[in-house]
Amino acid sequence: MEIRIRGVSKYYYSEGKTIKALDDVDLTIPANQIFTLLGPSGCGKTTLLRCIVGLEMPDSGEISIGDDLVWSKDRNISVPPEKRGLGMVFQTYAIWPHMTVFDNVGYPLQVRNVPREEIRERVAKTLRFVQLEGFEGRPATKLSGGQQQRVALARALVGEPKVILFDEPLSNLDAKLREETRKELRAFLGKLRITAVYVTHDRVEALALSDSIAVMRAGKIIEIGTPQKIYFDADHRFVADFIGRANLVKARVRAVEGGLTMVDCALGAIACQRRDVAVGSEATLCIRPEFIQVVGGEGKAGPNVVNGRIDSLVFVGEAYEAEIRVGDELLLARIDPEAKLGEGDAVSFTLDPAHCLLVAV
Ligand code: ATP
Questions:
Q1: Nearest in space to 164 (alpha carbons), one of 147, 152, 177
Q2: Given ligand 1 and candidates 11, 17, 45, which is best to mutate, with the most ligand atoms within 8 Å of its CB?
Q3: Going by CA atoms, what residue is nearest to atom 16 of ligand 1?
Q4: Same domain, 169 and 253
Q5: 106 and 188 share one domain
Q6: Is 201 in the pocket of ligand 1 (CB under 6 A)?
Q7: Residues 210, 123: one domain?
Q8: Using an 8 Å Cβ cutoff, are 45 and 28 in contact?
Q9: Distance of CA 215 from the midpoint of ligand 1 (Å)
Q10: Residue 16, C-beta contacts closer than 8 angstroms, at least 6 positions apart
């Protein structure tokens, strides 16, 4: 079910100050996708999610879920959360410790006075789906963190919601469990074909889970795209920088020729993937560390060949992370542990224009 958000702003008032948590947000979340709101702490992700759920009232704008207008400031429409047909999974799971797994999952049906036999069937079906069959009688606290998370997911799904919303649901798990649970969640959601809205500030989680990512800053959506588009082909410097490690170098556009845009920068004249930017304008050249593949010694002059020197080298397991000094720039690169290179060595690398991305300053 599609979610449409139009002109939504939200202010908070605290200690005599006004905080603009959402700034005129327009957003369409497509049906049956995993759609992630990603951004730094305080950018408004949770506020936007809470506005969709109905736990916050926006100060302007409209929100529709499928064909239902659930919020309109101008038309004075405010559908309460329990009538919006949504399921929600929180960071803290919010499962009840004094109840069994069965009672936790069945609770949303119980409060709707669903007949007992139907509750039994639907809980059993949902527990099967999240692979917790046989755990019905277990007190909810006597489960691992990952299993508790699945109970929370089951409880959100048991009412067969049109949309499911997640607010940083994995952030209480340790790194390894978080990775496993992320995979499980992706598989569960893939099977369900349901609209899922997911809030996180963890870029790896966003990349691994999402069909689409909306990157937010200061109450606004900055850019929306697939994980690949956001990582490899962002339009904005903020987005390119936030989604992964990036070398960002100031550049000036020299020419746009064929499939390439040529820039002058501290690395020399560099051919980049084509961006239609005005000749003479300033831009930022973005190069991911994994695309800087250094070889020892000085390179023969040629297109996109850059010479530098290893400033520092740190072993991180699967690779060395090196800082390469090129003039005044320090570039982060990954170096094969087999390469016999050390700090102070002269190195060179050739940049593939396909991996030289120009973003707005
Ligand atoms: P995080 O990742 O840290 O949870 P977020 O992106 O979800 O952050 P929000 O929780 O939506 O951000 O907050 C957006 C802004 O609104 C922040 O500046 C926050 O301090 C402020 N804010 C949120 N809730 C309230 C509130 N109840 N009262 C006052 N200010 C609030």
A1: 152
A2: 45
A3: 21
A4: no
A5: yes
A6: yes
A7: yes
A8: no
A9: 16
A10: none
Helices (H), 32-72: 45-53
- Which element (helix H / strand E) includes 214? strand 212-217
- Which of 178, 105, 93 lies closest to 138, judged by CA? 105
Q: Which domain holds residue 8?
A: 3-238
Same-domain check for residues 252 and 280: yes
196, containing H or E segment? strand 195-200
Q: What is the pLDDT of residues 285-337, one digit of tens each?
A: 999 999 998 988 887 888 899 999 999 999 888 888 999 999 999 999 998 88
> In the prediction, which pLDDT does 297 show?
85
CA of 41 to the centre of ligand 1 (A): 8
Sign of CA dihedral 315, 321, 323, 324: positive
Q: In the sheet that 68-72 helps form, which strands lie side by side, from edge to edge?
A: 17-29, 3-14, 60-65, 68-72, 77-78
Ligand 1 centroid to Cα of residue 20, in Å, is 9
| 302 and 180 within one domain | no
Considering the domain architecture, whether residues 104 and 30 belong to the same structural domain is answered as yes
Residue-wise pLDDT for 205-240, tens only, equals 999 999 999 999 999 999 999 999 999 999 999 999
Residue 61 and residue 107: Cα distance in Å, rounded?
A: 33
Q: 127 versus 169: which is more confidently predicted? A: 127
Q: How far is the CA of 312 from the centre of ligand 1 (A)?
A: 39
Can you read off the two tokens belonging to residue 60? Answer: 């302007």
Q: Is 348 in the pocket of ligand 1 (CB under 6 A)?
A: no
Nearest Cα residue to atom 11 of ligand 1: 44
